[in-house]
Amino acid sequence: MDALLIDKLAIIETVQNWAVWRDAGDWERFRTVWHDDGWMSATWFQGPAEKFIEVSRAGFERGVSILHFLGGTSVDLEGRRAIAQTKMTINQRAPVDGVLVDVVCTGRFYDFFEKRANGWRIVRRQPIYEKDRLDVVDPSASLKLDPGLLIQFPEGYRHLAYLQSKVGFTIKRDMPGLKGEVVQALYARGAKWLAGEAAWDAPPVPSGA
Fold first, then answer.
1. Which sign, positive or negative, has the C-alpha torsion 148, 181, 74, 33?
2. Between the CA atoms of 76, 204, 155 and 53, what dihedral angle is there, to the nearest 10 degrees?
3. Is 194 a member of any domain?
4. Is residue 125 classed as helix, strand or coil in its secondary structure?
């Protein structure tokens, strides 16, 4: 097996481990998918990976239900750097105005990888949110959404953001979607990363809960 394929398989395994270990609450192994300077971005959290582990664990222990399902992965690799894009869905269950609902959001994980002494690990993860939907868990229940609140969020994660805002999260409203300037800027940062440049100009300001 050639070295390029071995590297790509190691990256894909890390992507898969992220989802399995995070959703299972296996926090010590989940920590190993990140480099020490790893950074996580999501609708409800933007900050260092270590802080993301902390708040994810706290949510897991109080019953927050967020699960991830993965599809195919495409890896662009240049030397000791890579960009991995993985088809995924985010599934969250929570009550909205007293009605239990499921939200399914489809998109991609866009991961900045680097190979260091401890192997291939994630330096930065940025989800791309493509489309979502909301369903009541009990088919006999009814729920009327607030259209004024719903329209405030981008189309790609509108219902996910609606649910998360209802349960108390502060939502970042300029995350990348399937099309547009924000996702094009992300692709440009990915190209810079593969070319050996910094993926962003300055450390972002942490936010989230």
1. negative
2. 80
3. no
4. strand
pLDDT-wise least confident of 80-89, 93-102, 157-166, 195-204 = 195-204
Tell me the sheet residues that pair with 100: 95
Q: Which pairing describes strands 207-208 and 99-116: parallel, antiparallel, or unpaired?
A: unpaired
Rounded to whole angstroms, how far apart are CA atoms 77 and 209?
A: 33
How far, in Å, CA of 43 to CA of 137, rounded?
23
Query: Which pLDDT tens digit goes with each residue over 29-85?
Result: 999 999 999 999 999 999 999 999 999 999 999 999 999 999 999 999 999 999 999
Q: Which residue bears the tokens 């991830």?
A: 68
Distance (Å, whole) CA 185 – CA 108 = 15
How far apart CA 20 and CA 29 sit, in angstroms, is: 10
204 belongs to a structural domain = no
pTM: 0.93
| Total domains in the fold of the chain | 1
Taking residues 153-173, report their average pLDDT.
96
DSSP 8-state assignment for residue 179: S
Is the model's pLDDT at 202 over the cut of 60? no
Range of the domain at 180: 3-188
What's the CATH number where 17 sits? 3.10.450.50
Q: Are strands 34-41 and 119-136 parallel, antiparallel or unpaired?
A: parallel
Determine contact, residues 154/99, Cβ cutoff 8 Å. no
